[in-house]
Design goal:
The chain is an all-beta fold. It has a 6-stranded mixed beta sheet, with no helix packed on it. It has a 4-stranded antiparallel beta sheet with strand order 10-11-14-13, with no helix packed on it. The chain contains no helices and 16 strands. The protein folds into 2 domains: 5-101, Immunoglobulin-like, CATH 2.60.40; 108-181, Immunoglobulin-like. Helices cover 0% and strands 51% of the residues. The radius of gyration is 23 Å and the shape is elongated. It is found in: Membrane. This is LFA3 protein. GO terms for molecular function: signaling receptor binding.
């Protein structure tokens, strides 16, 4: 019975996506399938062959076995499998469940005022994890926890704050004036 390696992965609509294949041996044959249909194959001493669903949108690395899909489309959401030679009992068929997600929305920044702090929250509409970062023109005294920032209440209301959200190769940003925190 072959080992099963299954990994859930996601890509962003319109971006390029490379499957995270880790094989530490010299490959002589590679077959990639999408929902059990062959989409790319390669044999030693030859060029990779791509089948219609990937033609002009795929690139196979015959040293690592990894496959890159260019300009992801919604219908690239599927189960992909990599079979390769040399095959032995220790080599699993590598299976990836790829979900193609819409890119994140522009972030929005909201402000809540507590006794001695301003609490800024950055939010974007996205179905996966996002990396958040903040930029302040001159404020240095703040505490950040992912998408939330705590500032002292005595900040200059003319200060501008920028929130950045990033996922994969996509980044969006939004600017906010602290004056909006003070009625």
């Amino acid at each position: 019975v072959a080992n099963i390696h299954c990994e859930e992965v996601f890509g962003i609509l319109g971006e390029n996506y490379t499957f995270p294949v880790k094989i530490n041996e010299t490959l002589v044959e590679i077959i990639w399938t999408k929902n059990k249909d062959k989409i790319a194959e390669w044999e030693e001493q030859s060029q990779p062959v791509y089948f219609p669903s990937l033609r002009n949108r795929g690139s196979l690395n015959n040293e690592t076995g990894s496959l890159t899909i260019f300009n992801l489309e919604k219908n690239d959401t599927a189960t992909y499998a990599l079979e390769y030679l040399p095959f032995d009992e220790n080599n699993p068929v590598l299976t990836f469940i790829l979900t193609v997600l819409d890119p994140p929305s522009e972030p929005t920044i909201s402000c809540n005022v507590s006794d001695d702090h301003l609490v800024l929250t950055c939010a974007a509409d996205f179905k996966g994890p996002l990396a958040y970062s903040w930029d302040f023109s001159s404020i240095t005294d703040y505490k950040q926890w992912q998408n939330v920032v705590f500032l002292r209440k005595n900040v200059d209301p003319s200060e501008k704050v920028t929130c950045f959200v990033e996922v994969s190769q996509t980044a969006k940003r939004s600017e906010f004036s602290l004056a909006e925190c003070f009625p």
